[in-house]
């Protein structure tokens, strides 16, 4: 291995170490406790070294946000694969969203630390856009299957996302954790949302 290759590998290993220690702090104390200085102390490097890889704390949180959206999209996509009907797909997607938040709560908190992202943010971040497009595809399948083309699909996607996130946010505010299975009110809200897709005005 040449000198340049060895240096590149060492840099990659250090970046991985920064990410791992950052996540360890987040898991123990929450994402608000994360700071560049604390990361530097944990890996026994100087603060300027950390800045070579991440310009600030927000850059590290952005890394975890994108990672979280990739994982969430993968979980949602798996939930709708090989499912018989579009309505069942949408139900499965909603439940998979809940399960992700319950299983990956710290990731979810980082992803939605300031609430649902704006349309501009979603369009500029591929990982967010991929997830919103998957939701839109599943909603469109329900609309097409029920010949209800008057539905504003983009509006419904935003409504669905707001509904799913809203119930999870309430769980976090009320209990600081999320139950393993969706609550009855969550399920009822999803069923009511589906009703608006399959029934014409």
From TrEMBL:
Recorded GO MF terms:
DNA-binding transcription factor activity; transcription cis-regulatory region binding
Identify the residues that the record assigns to the HTH tetR-type domain, covering every copy. Answer: 12-72
The feature table lists the DNA-binding region at: 35-54
Q: Name one Pfam family in it.
A: TetR_N
**Keywords for this entry?**
DNA-binding, Transcription, Transcription regulation
InterPro entries registered for this protein in UniProt? Homeodomain-like_sf, HTH-type_TetR-like_transc_reg, HTH_TetR, MT1864/Rv1816-like_C, Tet_transcr_reg_TetR-rel_C_sf
Q: Which PANTHER family match?
A: HTH-TYPE TRANSCRIPTIONAL REGULATOR BETI, HTH-TYPE TRANSCRIPTIONAL REGULATOR RUTR
What's the protein here called? Transcriptional regulator, TetR family
Which organism's genome codes for this protein? Answer: Sphingobacterium psychroaquaticum
